[in-house]
Every structure is written in C-alpha cells, then in structure tokens.
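Figure 3 (text version): structure tokens given as input.
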C-alpha cells in the first residue's frame, strides 16, 4: 500500500492568455514575461517539497513552467521530468487561435453552454476525461512500482486500509483556508508534481471528485473545485493505492486545496 501527494499546477501566463485567445493544442506558445515571473513564484512557494516524480504536458508553456518550478526547488533542481502528451490542453479545433468570445458565440449559436460545447475538430469533455483517466493509470502504476515497497511501512506515509478514509477526512479538516506550501504533506514520504492546462485541470478535478469520490476540504463547495484555475494556480490531492493482480486500486482520495494563488500576491501588489 502506498499513500502519496499529487501537486497539480496550471502553466504560467502566455500572451494568448493575456489577450484572451484560445490556445488548445495547436497553438504552442511560450510563457510571457509575466508567466515566467509566475512560474518562478510558484517554484519559490514549492521550493522545500521534495518531489519524487515530475510530469508535464509536452506543450511549451507547461514544460517551461515545470522547469521554473524545479529550478527554484531545493531538492529537485536538475531532475528530469516526464513529458506526457496525455496532459495536453483540451483541443478546441477550429476555435484555436481565436478570441474566447468567438467560442462563446459558436456555443450560443448551437444552443449550448460554452463549457459543454465542442467546436468542429475539437475534443469533447468525455475525450479529455478519458485522457486524464489514462494518465492516472500511468501515474498510479509508476508510483506504486517505484515507491510501493518503501511506502509499505506506516512510518513512511502509508495508511492502514481500514483507516485510510477516516484519517484523510480528519486531516482535511486541519488544513487552513490560507495555508502553507506543505499543507497535506505531513507524514507522507512521496510526492508527485504535475503541470498541465486550465481546461484540462477543470475536467480532471471533476473526475476526481464526481467519479472517484475524492473528499473535499472542509467547507469547500463543488463550484469552487471546478472554478477556472488561474495561471500557476496550485491544487493538491492525496491518494492511497493498493496493489492487485489487475493493477493499482485507489483505496482513498482527498483534496487538500485547489486554485491556490498565495505565491502570486507579491506579483499582484507590484503591478
């Protein structure tokens, strides 16, 4: 059995973000000056967390953000990351490169909400969810194979199967609404970092909470969980895995926090 944390970060700002243009997968832009500052700030915020595994979307804006986070980390500078196509942004088809307002107009013309609408050539929400489910399978398998033996002892962060959900719920109630970078990490020995994209993260969190029944932080509503993630917004989840003949089984899951932007306060004040 293994319990580990997953820190989920959206990439920093690009000029397309700033100008409210859709990027999706076909527009592979780099970070803007502000985006680089945001990535540095996120790295300083997470500097003392010893990530064991790092995954990033293979689009430039995510790779650059992950590099900035690792460069500022006291334990992980120079660590190799896995560039994972399964973490790429939702594809928006013909709407990529166009103003977000254009997508809203297309959705209105089709009689659908903008969030649920799939432009021609784009990915449905179901297809994005399937990509995330495939990534979770990859993540869980790798974490259990690499760290399962070390994490089998309770002192290394594993929870007894019967107590996992109860202990997670108790721990969640202890996390302050505005807290420290190591919230939720107490007693855990293994940590994964994932850098991805706004629309993808929204679908991912929806799957974790609605389908996998991930417990929410005390007092947090679902509307906050699936609210748009700001650039370099940070979320954290804690998973407990058990091995089986068919592969890793998720025994318990909880959300510690989502969309946290503590690290951006000084940047905002300086503007």
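Below: residues designed for each position.
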């Amino acid at each position: 059995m293994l319990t580990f944390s997953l820190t989920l970060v959206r990439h920093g700002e690009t000029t397309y973000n700033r100008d409210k243009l859709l990027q999706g997968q076909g527009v592979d832009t780099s970070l803007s000056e502000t985006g680089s500052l945001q990535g540095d700030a996120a790295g300083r915020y997470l500097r003392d967390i010893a990530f064991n595994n790092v995954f990033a979307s293979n689009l430039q804006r995510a790779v650059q953000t992950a590099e900035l986070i690792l460069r500022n980390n006291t334990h992980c500078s120079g660590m190799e990351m896995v560039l994972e196509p399964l973490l790429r942004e939702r594809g928006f088809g013909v709407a990529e490169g166009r103003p977000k307002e254009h997508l809203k107009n297309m959705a209105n013309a089709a009689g659908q909400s903008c969030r649920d609408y799939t432009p021609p050539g784009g990915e449905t929400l179901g297809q994005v969810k399937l990509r995330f489910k495939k990534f979770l399978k990859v993540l869980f398998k790798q974490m259990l194979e690499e760290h399962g033996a070390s994490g089998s002892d309770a002192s290394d962060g594993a929870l007894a199967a019967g107590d996992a959900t109860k202990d997670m719920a108790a721990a969640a109630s202890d996390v302050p609404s505005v807290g420290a970078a190591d919230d939720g990490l107490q007693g855990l020995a293994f940590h994964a970092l994932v850098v991805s994209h706004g629309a993808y993260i929204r679908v991912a969190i929806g799957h974790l909470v609605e389908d996998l029944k991930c417990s929410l932080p005390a007092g947090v509503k679902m509307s906050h969980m699936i609210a748009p993630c700001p650039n370099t917004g940070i979320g954290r989840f804690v998973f407990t895995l058990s091995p089986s003949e068919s592969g890793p089984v998720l025994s318990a899951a909880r959300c510690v926090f989502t969309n946290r932007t503590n690290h951006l306060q000084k940047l905002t004040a300086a503007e």
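DSSP finds nine helices and six strands in the chain.
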